[in-house]
Every structure is written in structure tokens, then in C-alpha cells.
TrEMBL record:
It is a multi-pass membrane protein. Pfam families: BPD_transp_1 (PF00528), OppC_N (PF12911). Belongs to the binding-protein-dependent transport system permease family. Residues 84-273 form the ABC transmembrane type-1 domain. PROSITE patterns: ABC_TM1. It comes from Desulfacinum infernum DSM 9756. This is Peptide/nickel transport system permease protein.
Length: 287
């Protein structure tokens, strides 16, 4: 009973710390709105994002087309709404996949040490030597450019980050009493990692995952801009920026509105990540 009350008290303190952070609240609200827009794109979109109207090419903002049209006469607002689906699917899915793979590799390396640690962490070091975009381009060149392959590509880029974080966090708690006690009673390694290690490092991993969703979205947009993202006519924010470059003087809104969508999304997830960090870290929430 006492443990339950302590846990409830800790949860209240965590949510209180999050609620006091106005920046985090704004980020959470904006992130939720973006997610809802992506989920309900078929309902919110005023037009089919692929529908072309040759009589409305490069039309300015109007009551019919709030953000204007592109050089094929497609409604920009509708394409931005549908493009949010691609960005969020790739961003969130790739980070989750990278979180799973990186955490597993980092915990195995940190727990077993020796040759296993050396092999895994040197491989991680090699991957981290490459800039994110260069590594993503190389992997995409091998796998090809489609939705599933992009998720795998960006997950590969994210995996070393999570592996490094998980490895360092595990080393800091590996010699603590509860881990040593579990080892002394003969608990198996998977159980020790699952029951005693992961719950104590998951907070740091969650904060990093929230922050790195923005990195994944930006990386997807970079790949799309250079033609290695989801291929047209599927609307993505990166594709729209690239398409708008050719008509930047006549219709700057195509690139500007798409770029602002990326900016707002990344900013929202970064603000949310800062709030999650304040909520989880006992030093920052005053616990």
C-alpha cells in the first residue's frame, strides 16, 4: 500500500513538472494537432492531393484554394495535409525501430563487456563517423527509395545514437545493488535486462526518442529534396519544397508553406522532448 502511494505521489510530481513548463505544453498541443491532422487527412483535406486542374496552375491564395496551387494545379493545402502523414509515419516509425535496435545492442554490449562490447561498439563508432545525411544516402542507394525502405534507412541512422545512450546508461547502473542482487540469486540475463536495467534507463531513452523524431523528419525531408525520398506524385513536404524551387519566383508559397510545416513540426517535438526531460529528471522537477 505504501509503495502504491509513493508511486502515485511520484506520478503527480512528474505531471506537475510537465504542466508548469508552458513551452512543453505548447509543444505537446501543437504535436497533437499535427498528429490529428495526419490521422484525419481524408476528412480535413479540401481536395484530392493528386487531382490536377490545368486551368488553375500556380493560382494564388483564394477562397477556393487557401494556399494556392502548384504548377500542376494541385491544391497546396491538401498536399501539405497529406504530406504530414508521410513525415510522421517515417519519423515516428524509424525512431521507434532505431530505439528497439539501438537499446538492445547497447545493453548487450554494456552487460557482457569484453569482445562482444568491443565488436558492437566499434561497429557503432564506424556508423557514427558518417554524417547522418551521407549515411542515409548510402543506405538508400542500396535499398531503394520507398516508404518502408526509408523507415529502415533512417532507423539505421538512429540506431547508433540509441546504442551509445543505452550503453552509457547501463554502465552507470550495472554495479548497483539491485542488479548485483539479481545476479547473485541466479536471475537470467534477459530477465535482468528487462526487469532491472531497462526500467531505469528508459526515461533517458524516451527523452532522446522524443527529441530525435524531429531529426528523423528533417532527414526524410532532406532525402526527398534530393530525389531519394518517397517518389512523386505522393505528396511529402520534402518533395513539395523541391517542386517549388523551379517556380520560386512565381509561386514561392509551395516551398515556403512546406518548409514552415517541417519547421513547426520539428520545433513542436523538440519542445515536447524538453518537457518530457523535465518531467522524468528528478533534479529538474524538484523531487
Amino acid at each position: 500500500m505504501e509503495e502504491t502511494l509513493i508511486m502515485q505521489s511520484q506520478r503527480r510530481k512528474m505531471w506537475s513538472a510537465f504542466a508548469r513548463n508552458r513551452t512543453a505544453l505548447i509543444g505537446a498541443v501543437v504535436a497533437i494537432i499535427i498528429v490529428l491532422v495526419a490521422v484525419f487527412a481524408p476528412v480535413l483535406s479540401p481536395y484530392d492531393p493528386l487531382a490536377q486542374d490545368s486551368y488553375a496552375r500556380l493560382a494564388p491564395s483564394s477562397e477556393a484554394h487557401w494556399l494556392g496551387t502548384d504548377d500542376f494545379g494541385r491544391d497546396i493545402l491538401s498536399r501539405i495535409i497529406w504530406g504530414s502523414r508521410v513525415s510522421l509515419i517515417i519519423g515516428i516509425s524509424s525512431v521507434l525501430l532505431g530505439l528497439l535496435a539501438g537499446t538492445l545492442l547497447g545493453m548487450i554490449a554494456g552487460y557482457y563487456r569484453g569482445k562482444i562490447e568491443t565488436t558492437i561498439m566499434r561497429g557503432i563508432d564506424v556508423l557514427m563517423c558518417f554524417p547522418d545525411l551521407i549515411l542515409a544516402i548510402a543506405v538508400t542507394a542500396v535499398l531503394g527509395a520507398n516508404l518502408v525502405n526509408l523507415i529502415i534507412t533512417i532507423a539505421i541512422v538512429m540506431t547508433p545514437r540509441f546504442a551509445r545512450l543505452a550503453h552509457g546508461s547501463l554502465l552507470s547502473i550495472k554495479e548497483r545493488e539491485y542488479v548485483v542482487a539479481a545476479q547473485s540469486i541466479g536471475a537470467r540475463v534477459p530477465r535482468i535486462l528487462r526487469k532491472h536495467v531497462l526500467p531505469n534507463i528508459f526515461g533517458e531513452l524516451l527523452v532522446a526518442a522524443t527529441l530525435w523524431v524531429g531529426v528523423a523528419i528533417r532527414l526524410e525531408a532532406n532525402l526527398a529534396f534530393i530525389g531519394l525520398g518517397v517518389q512523386p506524385p505522393t505528396p511529402t513536404w520534402g518533395n513539395m519544397i523541391r517542386e517549388g524551387v523551379d517556380v520560386l519566383i512565381n509561386a514561392p508559397g509551395i516551398s515556403i508553406y512546406s518548409g514552415l510545416s517541417i519547421l513547426v513540426t520539428i520545433l513542436a517535438f523538440n519542445m515536447l522532448g524538453d518537457g518530457v526531460r523535465d518531467m522524468i529528471d528528478p533534479r529538474l522537477r524538484g523531487a
